[in-house]
């Protein structure tokens, strides 16, 4: 090797560590005015639940006051909750879905 030659060593490539997006819960809040059948219909239409799963989620909210419907990314959770609340408003019911960060 002469003085003008430079020995190059390959750089170690580091992959940037990506954090998983924070998950959010969509929560069904019980009310005394929205019919059970309508709640189940909304759960089936918006959250793609089966009749049986929708019934269980609705009954849990009825007994305990709230029920977690789904856990997903923030933007999806907010979109689904808004869509479900809009269904209730169109039908004249005070149906309420809220989102909150998962712990």
Q: What's the alpha carbon Rg, rounded to whole Å?
A: 24 Å
Q: Strand tally, please?
A: 3
Chain-averaged pLDDT: 92
The SSE order reads EHHEHE
Strands of the widest sheet, in order across it, are 2-1-3
User: What's the CATH first level of one domain?
Assistant: Alpha Beta
Distance between the termini: 61 Å
Could you list some keywords that capture this structure?
103 residues; alpha+beta; Ribosomal Protein L30, Chain: A; 3 helices; 3 strands; 43% helix; rod-shaped
How would you portray this structure in words?
- By secondary structure, this protein is an alpha+beta fold.
- It has a domain at 34-101: Ribosomal protein L7/L12, C-terminal domain/Adaptor protein ClpS (Ribosomal Protein L30, Chain: A, 2-Layer Sandwich).
- The protein is built from three helices and three strands.
- Strands 2-1-3 form a three-stranded antiparallel sheet.
- α1 (36-47) packs across α2 and α1 (36-47) runs antiparallel to α3 (74-91).
- It starts with 22 loop residues before the first strand and ends with a strand.
In short:
This protein has 103 residues and is an alpha+beta fold. The chain has helices at residues 36-47, 51-64, 74-91, and strands at residues 23-29, 66-73, 96-101.
